[in-house]
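Ticket opened by: R.M.
Priority: normal
Category: complex prediction / small molecule

The reporter submitted a protein together with magnesium ion and asked that the result be attached to this ticket for the collaborator who will pick it up next week. Submitted input follows.
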Amino acid sequence: MRDRQPGGRLSGMKRCTVVGRPNVGKTLLVLSLAEHLKARTVDVTFMDPSGAKQVRTYTVSAAIRELVGPRPHQTRCLQSIVVEVPAGKGRKVVELVDTTGLVDHIHEDLQIRRAMAQTLQAIRPAQIIVHVVDASTAGRDGSGPPAGAIDRQIADFAGSRGGYFIVANKMDLPDAARGLARLQRMFSGCAVLPVSAAERTGLREVKRHVLRSL
Amino acid sequence: MLAFEPRDPNLVLAGLEEGRLSPVEALEVLKHSVELGQAGPAGGQRLEEPSSSSAWRLKEALADLDSLIGLDKVKALVREIVAYVKIQQIRAARQLTCEPLALHMIFSGNPGTGKTTCARLFGKIFREMGVLEKGHLVERERADLVGEYIGHTAQKTREQIKKALGGILFIDEAYSLARGGEKDFGKESIDTLIRALEDYRDKFIVILAGYRDEMETFIRANPGIRSRFPIHIEFPDYTTDELLRIADLMLKQRDYRLDLAARARLEFILTRRAGPGNDHSGNARLVRNIIERAIRRQALRLVEKPNLSREELMLIRREDITDDFSA
Ligand SMILES: Nc1ncnc2c1ncn2[C@@H]1O[C@H](COP(=O)(O)OP(=O)(O)OP(=O)(O)O)[C@@H](O)[C@H]1O
Ligand SMILES: Nc1nc2c(ncn2[C@@H]2O[C@H](COP(=O)(O)OP(=O)(O)O)[C@@H](O)[C@H]2O)c(=O)[nH]1
Ligand SMILES: [Mg+2]
Ligand SMILES: [Mg+2]
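Result attached by the on-call engineer:
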């Protein structure tokens, strides 16, 4: 377990932290990206806010079954997966860190507040930050701005840095095309990539953006 | 915009954990600390840092517990409870069904057997594990909870419960709430407490403490309490040897030590006090009283002497030791 520690055995490993609101598809994105990179099994390292650490090996489909779900805050700790990304002749090793979704308000559950603090901690040392938003809710009528205060804040925080881009997920759902256009307007000056983690579309673009930031 | 201006990112994260800052506000502050060059985006930082500071404090609280003299069964039970809470948290994170944590406890034992000390450590332990927001100890007894007229009791009890939210409400000699029978206002206090256990589920932990036999009768007579307090911890009397080691520990913490004759006298007093039917009359509390008295008597013995050596200032002698507190 020790050698799985970030920055441990695999020196020079880059960290890519995936953030966003609850339920936008962060976990599914991480797992489908691993699958896209030809991983058959994934070792998921769970790091909970009180410091406990566990590694579990899943097939990608089992991980999706167990870790992705319709309830908000399905993910309540950092879950990291190490993947290899082909780069030119060689390959680069990247740690994908899935996080607890961030909300606008002060959450009433202490466990979730602790988990969100862990998310912020994981943002700071990351070389790459992937910010996931839900394109279909962004496209729905009458729902104010396409993304909320926390999204604006994440973009502000991370946007000035090299390795930052936005994934507009759930492009398979209605209204998503309109949502994408709105998001691109709202976050002009920043790459907003259309993706459907569910249908595995747009992942090649995501991979290219990750590689470009390494 | 914000009431404070933390430069230390860890303080910002603590503010988020404690519910003083929303994630939006926390990021706002962190953004500025990055701009201030306080935390470069470069890699190398470990992800576990915020949690590891609480993990470290948890270890420390457990080490404090271990450093208590004796109490082997209590220590083992605490480990069990800590393991149970951890596994429940991991299970929750993995979407397995979890009963709500039921951590209300009964502590039974004679005075001075370490009940308050352990309750305070539980507060720290549960705070670092994220079970309690603050982990402070509010120690109360009948007089703080029971009032003089109808309605007064519920109000007084609720007031104390409010103070304990986020921490532990420790009620000493809890059975005294049931004394006086049906008409006594103590019953109103028990009812208020039980209602609060439902209303403020997960917001605080109640520990009921007192002599073993009285606690047993009390619990048997109050099924509402029995069903809500699943953890029972018994604090046995200390042996004379343990009491002597407690004395050594208390003195060492205060930079004093006993000479051989003083130690023999203390042992004699403790053995006599520990006699049958004597309840050890005070256990660790008796030891503390004797020691605090001895420190004052030593001071009186030395105060007129010129040229005191370091050794003299530290040494407690036979004549400083007494268990006669009337004088
Ligand atoms: N096992 C121990 N090792 C070292 N010190 C101890 C131990 N148990 C108790 N003490 C010390 O003895 C004193 C009395 O202990 P504590 O107040 O916890 O006992 P208690 O059971 O709550 O009794 P009381 O009825 O006096 O409140 C405290 O100063 C505490 O630090
Ligand atoms: N239709 C659709 N649903 C998705 C997509 N990505 C995720 N979901 C669903 O959205 C819900 C939340 O996904 P999850 O990955 O757990 O979100 P997280 O909370 O951000 O980690 C689940 O029910 C997923 O099946 C997508 O691209 N399209
Ligand atoms: Mg998730
Ligand atoms: Mg006490």
